[in-house]
Amino acid sequence: PVAIVLSSSRASGKFSPTSDWDFYVFTNTAPRWGFDTFEGEILDISIEKYPVSENFIFTTKYHPEQFLEIIFDASGSSIDEAVQRTQDKYLAGPESIPENEYNRLKKVMGRYIQKVESRKDIQGLSFYYLGIFYEIALRLWFQLQNKWPLSPHEAIVHIERNDVNFSRLLKNLSGSIDIETQITVAKEIYSLLFKK
User: Fold this and answer.
1) CB of 41 closer than 8 Å to CB of 20
2) How far is CA 103 from CA 4, 86, 95, 108, 144, in A?
3) What mean pLDDT value characterizes the chain?
4) pLDDT less than 70: residues of the chain
């Protein structure tokens, strides 16, 4: 490899005994991603093509990586510059959600509610559609406040501390097995997110 960069909880120093090790490995081979194990530890490895573009940043599913630690670097300065660019991007904060993306999510989330309402007779289907709805709701809550979305386990705790009403709705949605209650709560969440 040309460079190896550790990211996420292990790089932050705030990890649990079951946390995986997230690595970016830069090589001249085709990009790929996967899990592996080493001495009982789970490795989440992202193989990145080297050289990287001049605007490359390290990203999670939710935002630019907040925590990065270079483990090995034979790139000269390009990986170090990418780490700095990523940290600058994270600190700058997210841009406001574009209107077209906001409207797209409004349609998507509304459609998931409609699918649950129209297919109440299929057991387990509400779990599927409302699971996707729930994930979008978590992410959108942060975007509407111009904050980087957090991973689900961090997001739920953050929302619980900062928005009691929204947290209550999320708990009601995930905790109910009654389809009518799920639909009612999903509509309340939808109304809160799309009130503008």
Assistant:
1) yes
2) 39, 28, 16, 9, 13
3) 94
4) 196
